[in-house]
Every structure is written in C-alpha cells, then in structure tokens.
Amino acid sequence: MSKEIIERVEKILPDFDLKLVSQGAEALVFVTEKHPYLPKDIKPAGLTNVNNFIVKYRPRKPYRHEKLDLQITKSRTAGEAKLLYKLDSLNIKAPKLIALDAINGIIWMEFLGFRLPNGNFSSLKNWLWFIEKKGESEAIGQLAKDVMRLVGYAIAELHLNEIVHGDLTSSNIVLVKESETEEKYSVALIDFGLSSYSNLVEDKAVDIYVLERALVSTHPQFSELYNEWLLEGYHSLYSEKKKINAWRDVERRLAAVRLRGRKRSMLG
Amino acid sequence: MSSAIPFREIEVPVYKKYKAVCFLASNVKNCQEIKENLIKANKDYDYGFLNAKNVVSLEQLYSGFYKTVMSQHDGNMKSRTLHTELIYSLSPFKNIMDCLNKFGISKDSNSILIVKIVESETLNNYFIKTQQENLKSIIDGEFLEITDDSLQEITDIKALEKNYKLKIRSTKLENNWPSISRNLVSITHLKGL
Amino acid sequence: MKLDFDTRAKPGQKWYIALGMEGSANKIGIGIIKQPIGDPSNPENRSIILSNIRDTYNAPPGQGFMPRDVARHHRNWVVRIVAKAISEAKIEINEINCICFTQGPGMGAPLQSVVIAARTLSLMWKIPLIGVNHCVGHIEMGREVTGANNPVVLYVSGGNTQVIAYSRQRYRIFGETLDIAVGNCLDRFARVLKISNSPSPGYNIEQLAKKGGKFIELPYTVKGMDLSMSGILEFIEELTRRQNEKIEDLCYSLQECLFAMLVEITERAMAHVNSNQVLIVGGVGCNERLQEMMNIMVKDRNGYVYATDERFCIDNGVMIAQAGILEYRMGGNCQIEDSVCSQKFRTDEVFVKWRE
C-alpha cells in the first residue's frame, strides 16, 4: 500500500527526494534536504537544522467520502500546524512550523534530533537502547537520569499550558544536542497528530500513563527507574510554578489510571 | 547613479506557473501619488505595493509568495489579483480593505516593497529592465538591495506588535530577528485557516 | 504454556454440548452447539451448530423499545424457544454439559428475565451454569465462524461500540464510544424519520442510504482512539426537522460519517497492535457499506476483513453457548449466588482462560 501513497506524495511534491522515516495509521513522515520554497542562498531563520526538513503527509483515505476526507484532512493538518505555532510561542521545544499545504495534508516542519554514534536517530527509545547496551552503570547513570527528568519536565510544560500530547511514546520524544563537545542534551516532543487542548486531570494522567506503559514495553529492564525519574521531572516544574495541588491531582489520578487501565468505565 | 536598480527574482518549486520580481525603495516621497494611480488602476502601477515596515526577512516575503501561488493553484484566492493576494497573505487581517490600508501603500509610507508577479515565461532580462525603468520613473525614492539587514533596518517594531498582536519589546523576541521572522512566517502560513 | 481443554471430559466423551441463552436487548435467542474434544483452535474441532432460534421484539415506528416490554416478551417466549431449540437439535437434556447465559452488559430487565430461566433450568436439570459476557460471546462466535485467529475486533451494535484487541488473556478495549453506541445512534435517527423498526431500523436506514448520494457535512468526532456520536445525532435531527434535505441523503451522509469514524479507529488499533485482520461483530456489522469501507481500508494494509451474516452478527444464543463452552472446558462454573446480571460488564473484565 505504502508504494501507492508514496507515489501520490511524490506527485504533489516532485523533485524533493523524500526519504520515508516513519509510517503510522494516519500519516507518513519524510525527511528531505530541500526547503519547500527558499532558494539555497536563504537560510530559514531560527531553526536548529537548516539542511534537513520534515514533511508530514496525511494521505487521503479512499474508504471515506471525498468531501468528508478533504474536510478531515484539512482541519487536522491545519490544527496540528496551529499547535506547532502555539508551542513555539510558548517557548516549548517542539518542531517549528516551516510551511503548510492543508488541502493536500502536508506540514513542513523543523527536523529535530541527530544521529547517535551507532547511526540511529536520537529518539529517546534509540538513545536508551544505545546506552543500555553500554551496561547498567550507563543505563541508569546520571545522564540517563537527567534526560528522563527533562522528559518529565517537557511533558509538565505541555500540561501546565493545558495541552495534552495524546500519543506519548519513547519514539515521539527526541534528544537534541545542546553542545558539540559534551554530552549535553535537551528534550523535544514530536508528533502532535493526536494532541488536543485539555485541562482535565484525567487526560493528563492518561498521557503520562501511556508513556509509562510504552517505557515498560520497550525498556523493561530499567523502566521502573526511568518512570520514577520522569515523574520527578514532571513534579519539579509543578513545584517551580507553585502548582502543588495540581500535581497532587495528577498524581492521584495517575495511580487510579494505573489500576484500571486507560479506559474509564462506561455503560455496556 | 548607476542605471540598474537592485531587484530580487522569486520562484518556488511545485507552483512554477508564476514568478515574481521584487524591489525595495526607501525614503519614498510620492506615496500619495502612487496610491492615487493605483486607485485609478493606471497600468504603469500594476504591482503589489507593500509597506516595508511590516516585513522583516526574505523568508517572510517568500512565504507570502508561496502562499499566494498555492492559493492560486488550489483556486482558493481570497482577492481578485495575485498582487492583492500577496498583500492579503502577508497581512494578519481578514478584511481585504484592512490589508490594503495597513499592509499596502498609504500616503505616509516611507519604505515600500514593490512586487510584480507574472507568468513565469514572461519574466526575462528584458522584462526586468522594463520594470526597472518604469519604477525609476514612477517612484521618487532610493532603491535598495533586498536583504534581511536592509529589511530589518526599515522594520517598525511597534507596527509589528500592533498588527500581528505580538509582544516583542521586553520579551525574549526583543532584538531576536530569527524568532521574530519565524513568528511572522508561521502566521503567514496559518493565514485563513 | 499448553492449555488443557479436556480436564472435565469423562472417559469416552467425544464432545461437549452447550445451551446458550441470550436476552440482553430486544432479541431472545437460544442456541445449542456441539464441540469436539481437543484443542478448539484446531480447524478440525470446529463447533457444530445444532440449533439457533431467535425472536425479536419490535417497537412500533417512531418508538424505541422499553425494557419492561422487552422483558415481558422474553418471559413469554423463553420456554417455547428453549423447547424448540432442543427439539431441533435432536438431543436429550442429559447430554447438555452446561447452560450458558448472558450476564451482561445489556438492559437490566430483559437480562434478568432470561437469567431466571437459566437458573431454573440449571437447578431443574442439575446442569452447571456459565455466565458469559455478551461482547466476548460475539468475539468468540466471530472467531469460530470466520476462522480469524487474532483479529482486531470492531464490535458495533445497539448498545456497544468498541475496538478490541486481544493481549495477555484479556480482550482489551482500544477505543470506544464516549457517549451513545453507533446502533443506538442509527435507531434513534430512524425514530426521528418514523421509519419501520422491522426487521431492524439500521437495515431500513441502509436501504434508504443506497438511494441517497449527496453528501451533507456532519460533525466528525474522533478523539484519539475513541469517538463520540451524540453530537452527530443532535445535528442530523435538527437537519431533518428543517426538511431541506432528502431523507435518503441524510441516511447516506449519516452512514458515511459514522462508518468513516469506525473504520478510522479500527485502522489505528491495527497499526497499534500490528495486526492486519479485522473481525466485525454486532448487529451493525451486517451493514454492507460498513463492510465495504472496512474492506477498502484493510486492502491498503494487505489484510483481511472477517464479517459474519445476520445469523451471528445479530444477538443470538449460539454465541453465548460458544463462549460459555470454552469457559466451561477451562473449569468455569457459575454458582447461583454469583449469577447476578450486570448492565455494566466490561469486555476487559473477563479473564480469557482459553487463549494463550
């Protein structure tokens, strides 16, 4: 199937040399070296990477009515682009918006992350696997602790701004190099395709819970510590902002969600 | 003074039907006259005239052009001509008259960006030369190279704050041109959505 | 871990026979199946359906069914239908290994009228009782009939809308409705249009939709893996009141919108669990347009859609017997005092002993 979809996006964006990075049920993500509209002598401003760009493409879904499909594609693409701009305005680290073609379901955004020494992309998942290979002292060392706390902090930033990510996994969290010489990283969240504005404790607790589950399944050996550090980081921003009651609410609800799973109970 | 005035040619991938040639003039003395001729639809004045104080970077200008030719391609234009569509795309206002008044030229404008959008095959050296000569005759001002620096020199931060509803002074955006440009580019892409 | 399905088999026993009793909504269904000993997932050990009898209570056009009317209907019919099922199955009562009944979810009064009958039969005939989750019944029957081994299940009926995938001995709910069920949405729209409830309101909407073709924009409300339908119903009711649109087009657009939402969350769940099989169960699963849309989506994923026809899609007793017999074979035994029905009985509460 993906072949036809890729042919379709190549028809919309000819001569861009798109490389497929990931494919979900809703969207395909490509990377390309060509900017959508700037010539080589003009560099886009305020981006960490001016040589690679992300193209996120929501393909049309042939099972739904064409009019309905266009309505959905357009509103979701525009919605995600607006959210990226909002995050930028809030100074939350996430890909910055570069261009938008809502009718065709295409968002151009900043490429965040780098290649790890083993050649893999610096998602949290790959990075944890990378350091886990080096042995336990690295896997649960100070750097791992710092990074996991940053992750928690980043999620708290989102939540305190009444945004929930909706699909937190260790693949949707990216390490960004802060220094060329030292191992110093910041953390960015990516893929806001399922995000929404919400100030409900339930939604925030579920957001964290989904990530906890993802860490347990991809990094079972150390997930307990990772999750502990994650919550420490999350908690620390709430303390900084003097939102202790809000933190307690999330903490309490998270405990309840862990017991019952993601779903609320409902009528049969 | 040398005869050729500086220009910048703009084209983008995907939407290749149109190209633009752009000029920047500062200390323009006859804005009132230009505006009157525009209203009369005088053929010599068939350009997009933008008040340059709202434009901070080439990237912003390019994003406006990209948005314009994309809307044309998709049959989504909100105004009648490509030139007014460019002004509409770059401005944060929904109402076309607001766009033209606040982003287009007005009698007290000082620096203006002049953009001519034409079908790609029309744009050749001879065409550019004709435009250069025409502009020299209709604009009483000083023509500049269009660069981020020259644009930022002209930018009116207070006007940006007011028009785009941005807080720039005494925030992290102050003197941070890359971030200001990023904001304006995003606003352009999200225009009308 | 190898499961042993035959700890309860007596020496020389070749098969099990289960009587299933379903009455959670407006249909009473009694079914009898026979299942050979040995691993039931082996295609050679498929269940044999000995009888599948059903009677439906239909409300007059423009009205929904009331629980007490449905319960009365079930009480009036249960003895006759059980007798008919047994005579059609050509079995002796002492051959029955277990009496399976729907323990929930569903409407309280109808559930209770059937469980009373089940308890009575169990005490009278001294046959063990097995309580069955209605949704699990649909899933197990769907797997049995279609041969789908580990599909993502879309369960769509008048009372339920869930996307389910199996993991670690539970049928886990990946997505579900946050308010009303898809069948309920269709039924209530049929009431607004005052079209007949026979054979079912959904069927009549489907026939009208086939004559429509103009797509009218309706709210599309997928929230992550979940969906919401009450807003759509309200919106289309208002459109209907204004009488500017043909009812055929309204039916068409409602189906297009609701089914697109269902297919979308099913696709998400498939991507999530990395499966390319879909099993559609529940009354709305009979809808050909839903099946068609699901097929288009699944074709793109090189997968397969499994759907059953109205004998099994629509509530029936056989499905209760099927899930019940598996539970029975794994040692299940429901004491009378534990046989209380529950209107809320979540699919993921059931410990699925019979799968690895």
UniProtKB/TrEMBL annotation, chain A:
Assembly and binders: Component of the EKC/KEOPS complex composed of at least BUD32, CGI121, GON7, KAE1 and PCC1; the whole complex dimerizes.
Pfam families in the record: Kdo (PF06293)
The entry's keywords: ATP-binding, Kinase, Nucleotide-binding, Serine/threonine-protein kinase, Transferase, tRNA processing
Domain of life (superkingdom): Eukaryota
Domain Protein kinase: 15-268
Leading EC class: transferase
Name under which the protein is recorded: EKC/KEOPS complex subunit BUD32
Any one GO molecular function term: protein serine/threonine kinase activity
Origin species: Pichia kluyveri (Yeast)
EC id: 2.7.11.1
InterPro entries recorded: Bud32, Kinase-like_dom_sf, Prot_kinase_dom, Tyr_kinase_AS
GO terms classed as biological process: tRNA processing; tRNA threonylcarbamoyladenosine metabolic process
PROSITE patterns reported for this sequence: PROTEIN_KINASE_DOM, PROTEIN_KINASE_TYR
Family designation: Belongs to the protein kinase superfamily. BUD32 family.
Swiss-Prot/TrEMBL catalytic activity: L-seryl-[protein] + ATP = O-phospho-L-seryl-[protein] + ADP + H(+); L-threonyl-[protein] + ATP = O-phospho-L-threonyl-[protein] + ADP + H(+)
UniProtKB/TrEMBL annotation, chain B:
Span of the signal peptide: none
Pfam families given in the database record: CGI-121
InterPro entries, A to Z: CGI121/TPRKB, CGI121/TPRKB_sf
Any single GO CC term annotated in Swiss-Prot or TrEMBL for this entry: nucleus
UniProt keyword tRNA processing present: yes
Localization per record: Nucleus
Gene Ontology annotations of biological process type: tRNA threonylcarbamoyladenosine modification
Family membership: Belongs to the CGI121/TPRKB family.
Its biological purpose: Component of the EKC/KEOPS complex that is required for the formation of a threonylcarbamoyl group on adenosine at position 37 (t(6)A37) in tRNAs that read codons beginning with adenine. The complex is probably involved in the transfer of the threonylcarbamoyl moiety of threonylcarbamoyl-AMP (TC-AMP) to the N6 group of A37. CGI121 acts as an allosteric effector that regulates the t(6)A activity of the complex. The EKC/KEOPS complex also promotes both telomere uncapping and telomere elongation. The complex is required for efficient recruitment of transcriptional coactivators.
Protein name from the UniProt record: EKC/KEOPS complex subunit CGI121
Organism: Pichia kluyveri
Lineage, top ranks: Eukaryota, Fungi, Dikarya, Ascomycota, Saccharomycotina
UniProtKB/TrEMBL annotation, chain C:
PROSITE patterns: GLYCOPROTEASE
Catalytic reactions of this protein: L-threonylcarbamoyladenylate + adenosine(37) in tRNA = N(6)-L-threonylcarbamoyladenosine(37) in tRNA + AMP + H(+)
Residues where substrate binds: 155-159, 187, 202, 206, 287
Superkingdom of origin organism: Eukaryota
Keyword Cytoplasm: yes
Cofactor note: Binds 1 divalent metal cation per subunit.
Any single Gene Ontology cellular-component annotation: EKC/KEOPS complex
Cofactor(s) recorded in Swiss-Prot or TrEMBL: a divalent metal cation
Residues holding a divalent metal cation: 134, 138, 155, 315
Assigned protein family: Belongs to the KAE1 / TsaD family.
Protein name, entry field: N(6)-L-threonylcarbamoyladenine synthase
Organism: Pichia kluyveri (Yeast)
